[in-house]
Amino acid sequence: MDVGAMHIQGLREYLRDGSRNAHAAVDASFGSLDLTRRDDYQRFLAAHYMAALPLQPLLAGFAERHLDMAAPDYPALLEEDLAGLGVEPKRLPRLSVDLIDESAASYVLAGSRLGMSMIRRQGYWGAATGRPSAYMEDDRGIVVWRRLLRWFAEQRMNPEVAAQTLEAARRCFDLFGSAFAVSKGVKG
């Protein structure tokens, strides 16, 4: 993709188009789960926890400085959900990712709220058993997403910075892919 095109189409579109393959791979992995089954639901939450934990400080800082709002604390919401399933979140593997751009981390984490709204409509084990997920039911992330879209629309990054932001977004998606792989053995 031509990095100079970012100025014409906007940063959001540039990130979406440039990270499409990484995003599709993550969607395919998580899409292989049947979230109406307790084990798959638990794995889904555990993987999201492992990926969100290192990205949360970036989202929180970005939202505060650039969006003038507080971001939901996704690891805290996931800790609550996992504890309710008998999983000790603090004992899950810790993953890390290097050189992540705050706006890229925000793009991936806040953008995941769109997928959560679809999952809620389809149903998942916790909601079906009277234990709705604090993480999956969170609507505050959509507000972050909408403000992030406005922020993206206002940006005029130079091509080098845009390319770095795109690479960081890909690494964020790869982090979710790694978390999915590691989550296979999580038991409550």
Quick synopsis:
The chain is built from 9 helices and no strands. It has helices spanning 6-9, 11-18, 20-31, 38-66, 74-84, 102-122, 125-128, 140-154, 159-182.
User: Uncertain segments of ≥5 residues (pLDDT<50)?
Assistant: 1-8
Measure the end-to-end span.
44 Å
Would you tell me the structural class of the helices and strands? mainly alpha
Strand content: under 5%
Range of helix content: 55-70%
> Counting H and I runs of at least 4 residues, what is the number of helices?
9
Gross morphology is globular
- Helix and strand run: HHHHHHHHH
Q: Report the biggest beta sheet as strand number plus sense, adding barrel if it closes.
A: none
What is the rounded Rg?
Answer: 16 Å
- Number of E-type strands: 0
* Mean of residue pLDDT values: 92
What does this structure look like?
- 68% of the residues lie in helices and 0% in strands.
- The protein has helices spanning 6-9, 11-18, 20-31, 38-66, 74-84, 102-122, 125-128, 140-154, 159-182.
- With 188 residues, the protein is mainly α.
- Helix 6 crosses helix 9.
- It is globular and about 50 Å long.
Give the topology, please.
Layout: H1 6-9, H2 11-18, H3 20-31, H4 38-66, H5 74-84, H6 102-122, H7 125-128, H8 140-154, H9 159-182
